[in-house]
Amino acid sequence: MEKKSCVLFCRCKAQVISSESMEGILNGLKNLDVDLFELQDLCALTINEKDLLNAIGKEFQQKIIVACYPRAIKNMFRQNGIDFGNFEVLNFKELSADKILSKLENDFKIEKGEARYQVQITDLDVPAWFPVIDESLCSNCGKCARFCLFGVYSFDKKKLNVVDPLACKNGCPACGRTCPTSAIMFPRLAENTVLAGDEPNGKKVSIDKGSLLTTLNARNQNRRNIFRQGVVEQAEEERRKALAEFKLGMDFTKNDKKDS
After folding, report:
1. How far is CA 156 from the centre of its chain?
2. What kind and span of H or E run contains 28?
3. CA gap 80, 218 in Å, rounded
4. The domain 3-121 is classified under which CATH number: 3.30.70, 1.10.287, 3.30.110, 3.40.50?
5. Is the whole-model pTM more than 0.70?
6. Strand 116-121 to strand 132-133: parallel, antiparallel, or no bridges (unpaired)?
7. What is the domain partition of the chain in residue ranges?
């Protein structure tokens, strides 16, 4: 028999919010009559603990995740093959602890009490620049796969996939900046932007809705915005730095082997 409600709290190791905010939210959640899972951290668990998340998804009727942007979380689950059913996301990058607790009590009807609390940990080390694709916006143009130098993406038969998210390099969200439809997100990015998972221009424009002309016009406007803001040049610089750091790391590895 399914239990009624659970709350999953992401203790993000990328520190997208302050430690004080983290503790304030968690302490408040512990004072609710709910099954509470502290996840350390959610990005890593979606790769390394899929069975655990799938089991939680089947066990509970009402599932609320306290983490970052809903668009990023929902597409991250899809991308990693996690069948979590229907769930809601409360964005702790935009909502205060008091607002989150108010929503849980008033919108989700979770009463005050003592949480049935457990911590889920994984040793997997996830880079801060962990890419997630929004399939509803992706046009499968392949630009990101051609732009990336580290084998993060595959592009075969006009189909894009994230095949090695852990190969993504810190400080290099360059592929996301070049994406003409803002389909690439980095949930571990500390800023509050479309690159971190916010809705593009505050509004989701799906490529499979509306007329073809409307879709093309939206894409063209996004492209004009990209070039006008100079983000392509910024992306090139980020990619150059990431490649230089990668080569430097390879040189250190070679030298270590010679000395041993």
Report:
1. 24
2. helix 19-29
3. 28
4. 3.40.50
5. yes
6. unpaired
7. 3-121, 132-256
Q: Is 92 exposed, middle or buried (0-12, 13-18, 19+ CB in 10 A)?
A: buried
The Cβ of residue 132 has, within 10 Å, a number of other Cβ atoms equal to 27
CB count in 10 Å sphere of residue 36: 22
SS3 55: helix
Q: Residues near 229 by Cβ (< 8 Å), separated by ≥ 6? A: none
The dihedrals phi and psi of 218, each to the nearest 5 degrees, come to -65, -40
Tell me if residue 5 falls in helix, strand or coil. Answer: strand
Highest mean pLDDT among 68-82, 122-136, 236-250: 68-82
Bridge partner list, 35:
6, 116
161 in helix, strand or coil?
A: strand
- CA atoms of 174 and 147, how far apart (whole Å): 8
Taking the alpha carbons at both ends of the chain, their separation in whole angstroms is 58
Cβ contact 64:35 at 8 Å: no
Bridge partners of residue 154, in order along the sequence: 161
Which residue from 189, 206, 192, 133 is spatially nearest to 163, judged by alpha carbons? 133
The pLDDT tens digits for 162-179 are 999 889 888 788 888 889
The span from the CA of 85 to the CA of 106, in Å, is 22
Reported as type and span, the H/E element at residue 64 is: strand 60-67
In this structure, the number of other CB atoms found within 10 A of the CB of residue 207 comes to: 19
